[in-house]
Amino acid sequence: MRSLRTGLSLGSLLTGIAALGALLAATPAAHAADTPLRDLGAAKGKAIGTAVTGSKLTGTYGDIAGTQFSSLTPGNAMKWGSVEPTQGNFNWAEADQIVAFAQAHDQQVRGHTLVWHSQNPSWLTTGSWTPAQLGSLLQNHIGTEVGRYQGKIAAWDVVNEPFNEDGTYRSTLWYNGLGTDYIADALTWARAADPAAELYINDYNVEGVNAKSTALYNLVKSLKQQGVPIDGVGLQAHLILGQVPSTLQQNIQRFADLGVDVAITELDIRMALPADSAKLAQQAADYKSVVAACAAVARCVNLTVWGFTDSDSWVEGTFPGYGAATPYDANYAPKPAYYGIAEALGGSGGPTDPPTGACSAAYTVTSQWNTGFTGQVTISCSGASLSSWRASWAFGAGQQITQAWNATCTQSGSAVSCSNASYNGSVPDGGSVTFGFNASWSGSNPLPTVTLT
Ligand code: XIL
């Protein structure tokens, strides 16, 4: 709703000719937040990251990845199955490309991931290996990959998803062959290959305080006590709408209190499709609360979304019926979630004017004689549109409408209400509709304030 008052004096009205009303500027249309997320994050000491697909890093996708984020994680390109599809044959093309893009855009890279039970090459998973062979395969893999990118990777997710939901160790190629030692060994080998990289253990469903996160906590504590190189904990944060754990900040804090950094490494918040405005608003609130929890703990150093656009998200393919999990829609328009992140980092909450805020009404006296006058009201829209309208005002000096055209006007006392005719309710973006009326006056004919609803 928007109220307008003209600035004309009674004297100018008495000159009596055309166009005595005022024209009004429209409210500016919605626009993206002025400050990129990476700058908002930097002001709070946080890197803001996204997972990326190397082949997409051009055009709008590349622009957003390069300008909004200060950290990139290859979504798949550094996984063992990607880099060594057959034994001894390496493919570093996509990983190299992402590292080069990051360097060109003054971004850090989170290396992801060295030791995992998933996305391993089939030669590795189908081979039959003695524990000694398995250990040297893993050591060589870590030495080769970490060594290749030495000095270029801010942090490595060295070990990914080692736990079951109940906090026991997941049964994997590594655990089954090497026992729990594989974790300390992998960290030690990674440190040797790149002493400057921060070394992380990363897992999902460890965002709140629960059995799994407590197992991770106990592991990190014991690794620290043994002097094993462990610098950080990654909370993946693949969350469901409305289910941000209430203990998230407390959980981040307890890891920080162990003397390690924390990163939110793979944030997305999925909803049952189709999306609607209520779900998108809830998602914005959820993103905001996750970012706020990280912002509240100094050692939460990086917050990374797992894909920034709904067109580059793993969610729809992995969780049937769910999607719309990222901060930009599939056409790269920032969603409410984007502004939720920005707001938690001290930035703009985004466009707040309702769509009708960009439509306005201008009241004009087009002619006036001793007992009567003709008035007109023009309704204009810019950055918004209307499918029906009502213009209301109160006459200030006893004026009385006698006749109206292109609208249905009623007057009760001083209150006038004019709604659209059957044929002119629609006001398109960039267009206008005008209606007119005759009215009586005596003494004075002040211009009223018109309200559009
Ligand atoms: C996902 C990728 O996004 C998908 O493209 C791929 O098909 C499967 O893996 N936890 C992780 C990530 O640590 O590596 C996973 O990425 C998502 C879950």
TrEMBL record:
EC supergroup of this enzyme: hydrolase
GO molecular function: endo-1,4-beta-xylanase activity; polysaccharide binding
Database matches in Gene3D superfamilies: 2.60.40.290, Glycosidases (3.20.20.80)
Matching InterPro entries: CBD2 (IPR001919), CBM2/CBM3_carb-bd_dom_sf (IPR008965), CBM2_carb-bd_dom_sf (IPR012291), GH (IPR017853), GH10 (IPR044846), GH10_AS (IPR031158), GH10_dom (IPR001000)
Keyword Signal: yes
Pfam families in UniProt: CBM_2 (PF00553), Glyco_hydro_10 (PF00331)
Residues annotated as signal peptide: 1-32
Residue span(s) of domain GH10: 34-344
Reactions catalysed according to its record: Endohydrolysis of (1->4)-beta-D-xylosidic linkages in xylans
EC identifiers of the protein: 3.2.1.8
Matches recorded under SMART domains: CBD_II, Glyco_10
Active-site residues (renumbered): 266
Signal listed as a keyword: yes
GO biological process, one term: xylan catabolic process
Keywords associated with the record: Carbohydrate metabolism, Glycosidase, Hydrolase, Polysaccharide degradation, Signal, Xylan degradation
Residue span(s) of domain CBM2: 352-453
Family: Belongs to the glycosyl hydrolase 10 (cellulase F) family.
Protein name: Beta-xylanase
Organism: Streptomyces shenzhenensis
